[in-house]
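Bumping with the actual sequence this time:
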Amino acid sequence: MFKILFLPHNQEITVDEGANLLRAAMEAGVHINASCGGEGVCGKCRVIIEQGEVEGGITEKLSKEDIEKGYRQACLAVIKSDLVVRVPTESILDAKALNLQSTPRTTARIKQMDLSELKEKGLFFPAVEKIYLELPEPTAQDNLADVARLIGYLKLNHGERRIFANLAVIRKIPDVLREKGFKVTAVLARPVQEGRKTELINVQSGDTTARNYAIAVDIGTTTIYAQLLDLITGEVLAERGDFNGQISYGEDVITRIVFAEKPGGLEKLHEIVVKTINGLIGKIIKKAEVDMDDISTITLAGNTTMTQLLLKVNPRYIRRSPYVPASTLYPPFHATDLGITLGDHVTALVYPEVSSYVGGDIVAGVMGSGMYRTEELTLYLDIGTNAEIVIGNKDWLACAACSAGPAFEGGGITFGMRATEGAIEDFSIDPLTFEPMNITIGNVRAKGICGSGLIIMVATLFELGIINNLGKFDTGLDTPRIRETEGIYEYVLAWQADSQIDRDVVLTEIDIENFIRAKGAIYSGCLTLLEEVGLGVHDIDRIILAGGFGSYVDLEKAMTIGLLPEIDTSRITFVGNGSLMGAKMSALTNRIRKDVVEATKKMTNFELSETPSYMDNYIAALFLPHTDMNQFPKLQERIKIRRAAESERK
């Protein structure tokens, strides 16, 4: 047995000889970036062996100087002695930026509804309601049973026709009724479907009608966000985000599914996601200073894989043809059934899915944005490792998912990283000296590039002619910033002395190639789905961008590189975290819960891998911005003007 000390975390763990170092870090609760899931190909899991001996961990991703300094790739390193391991800055996960209040780049927004708007539109039907009761106390002449007394009073004085109580509530009723002389508050969960009974889920002594709360949760592959809601005012009392603890076991859904197939894997991933959710719940309850007993319901939305892992349902068949999920609809259940630390009375509702790769998070976004009620032809786009696309209006909806790869979240990019402190998020370049200006999250020295920054970099380099439409550098430019390293050309964004890490931060031609593949997958997915329903880009009335990534996208730059179709930016709106917004709306009103079933029935799913035109569109999109420049007339004109100006200078 060997002792492993991880710095700067000061976490120690004892493992057997021959154990894998990355696996040891997982068991110690130390996250080390490993976007390839531990296959040794991404080079993100760099660690420094300060003391002790490991076998392996040396790959072509490490330079000779790196190896001499003690760097190893943790996923390939086998433990041979006691170790002191330092996790360097670029390999550490930093959740601070998830909760920073920064200004989004995208200003056009869909206004978040409040309860008054819901009421005006006839959409407000409380999912959980509190009713204060002053019951007559029993006597020798009136010795009706406690439960019958309470339910009978609700029927007689509040028009509640069909109501029932479960055993857990029945156990509480006798004592709660007598705490304050039969003055109690009944907590009622309204049925989603017509004809079903209302459930008495809790009773509280005295009048607690002013305190009725709900929790909304977005379970993302990378991050999880939670909000505490006031069901009376609709106000968000507290919110918090954190990285999904499962990312230590794989950064995308496929690697998570593979891990879940291993003995004990499904249970482990379930346990970890619940632990992350419970941590967020504890923080928002503490911040808002509310009593847990006053929380009545929790709504959760996530993609299909995240939902099945949460519910401890085997996700094995999601990644195997014909790509079938276990279920698209799940019944309400008690939050405690999953190990969520809320009261026994709290009902949990999970958003339904459409297919294996169009999940509850997208359905929640469609519901929360209101596109399912509008007459405008709308394209809803959620950009991430998997890009989900929905096209339609109140009459019909079509959807698809395409695998964009991890480039927008830092994977496949040499210095790619999530949007955390030190990530370059904005960029410009002097067209004469080719010197860069980098703006980082937190205004600190650079240590990598986040997705929104990558879009701006590639677009800027392309428009200035520093790279061509294949993403290759003009090596004839007079600047030390463009150089060849081990046969690959790259642009130096920050010299080592100006960075947080012990090497230069660069953008390579391979990085740009991976980026072009990612943007090409998304753009071709949009075109293919439009073509399949007999429409084109010119038919779109509105584009809705969803997700935290979308809020920081420079729309013009996204069109420049061919990520988004070229349309008037005033027709593009941003809903932020669409999944969380949909979960919030579902918590506030039963109307959304009722509408969602009908909306999902309208959603026709297209498997792009089975659609012949998708590959043709994809190949055509593997250029900046596209092989058909006529799809981008404004960019075409800007390039024409730039070239004319360059000719005049010469």
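The tokens above came from a reply further down the thread. The two ends are 70 Å apart (CA to CA).
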